[in-house]
Known about the structure:
This protein is of the alpha+beta class. The chain has a domain at 10-36 and 77-155: Alpha-D-Glucose-1,6-Bisphosphate, Chain A, domain 4 (2-Layer Sandwich). It has three helices and seven strands; from the N terminus they run E-H-H-E-E-E-E-E-E-H. The protein has a seven-stranded antiparallel beta sheet. The mean pLDDT is 94.
Amino acid sequence: MNVAQTIPAVRKTIIVEAPVAHAFEVFTAGLPRWWPQNYGIGKKPVASVAMEARLGGRWFETAEDGTQTTVARIIGWEPPHRLVMVWQVDAQWRPDAAMCSEVDVRFIADGESRTRVELLHHKFETMGAEQGASMRKDVDGGWPKHLEQFARIAAQK
C-alpha cells in the first residue's frame, strides 16, 4: 500500500479592524479591492479578479480579451463565518482543475468591531510530493502580504 506523505499545512492569522460580516464581505465579494491583479494565473494581461460569493461559486480572473480562468471553487459557504475553497493552481502558477489543495478561511469575532481571520491552506499532498511542497512554500510566503492588504482594505469600511 502506497501512503502519500502529508505536507504540513500553512496557517495564517490576522486581526482585522472591522466587524465579522464586513470582513467576510470584503474577503469574498470585495476580492477585487484587495487581491493584486498582477498575480494572474491565466491569460495576460488580467483585467479583473472576482469571486462568485456563494456555494459552488468561483474565484476567477478575466483577461483583457474576456477569457476567464478559474483560480478556486467554493465548496464551503457559511457567511459570515467560514469559506472553504478548492485551489486549482499548479506549482508553476498555472490553472489546473486536477489540483485540489484547499483554503479554509474562518472569521471569528474579537469584540464588536474586530475580527480574527484564520486561514488554513492545506491538502498539498493531493498535488503530488514535488508540486505540493513547492506550492506550500510559495503560499506560505504569499498569504501574509495578501492578508495584510485585505486587512487594510477591510478596516477602511
